Amino acid sequence: MLVLLAFIIIFHITSAALLFVATIDNAWWVGEEFFADIWRVCINNTNCTEINDTFTGYSMLQAVQATMILSTILCCVAFLIFVLQLFRLKQGERFVLTSIIQLMSCLCVMIAAAIYTDRREDLHKENPNFYRLISDGTYGYSFILAWVAFAFTFVSGLMYLILRKRK
Questions:
Q1: Tens-digit pLDDT profile for residues 83-140
Q2: Structural domains in the chain?
Q3: What's the pTM value of the predicted model, to 2 decimals?
Q4: Long-range pairs for 126-134 at CB < 8 Å and ≥24 separation?
């Protein structure tokens, strides 16, 4: 049982780390001379432009930013609640609250990545100064990590739903 508990804790911490990296790092859309994320666009590694309200499509990026931050916070809260429930729940009870919060984190990450996937091309077309420079890019590792974090948080949420506290 101790090995299972250690695996669940490591799996949850890995999920949180993936969410932190996907939210913070600047590699959602990359190319040879640029990289862009939900916070800024950098050309030639020196010319970085913060994405603000003058950027066309800013509301879409704000939605992605908000849901990624919310998913990271929910994942951390779920871990804290898991630790509290580990010592407070009676034997045989399930970690339902932890599961619900972790599945909400999963939903937030899915929403953020789906919005970015759907609206990325429109965002670049609406900003012609950047579009000609960054149109020939690919999805970066932060974007891929967001989808991997979605899978990890989903599996983690299901594990908590099934898991019972045993001796």
A1: 998 888 887 678 889 999 999 999 999 999 999 888 776 666 666 566 555 567 788 8
A2: 2-162 (1.20.140.150)
A3: 0.86
A4: 126/56, 126/57, 127/55, 127/56, 127/57, 130/36, 130/41, 130/49, 133/31, 133/33, 133/34, 133/43, 134/29, 134/31, 134/34, 134/36, 134/41, 134/43
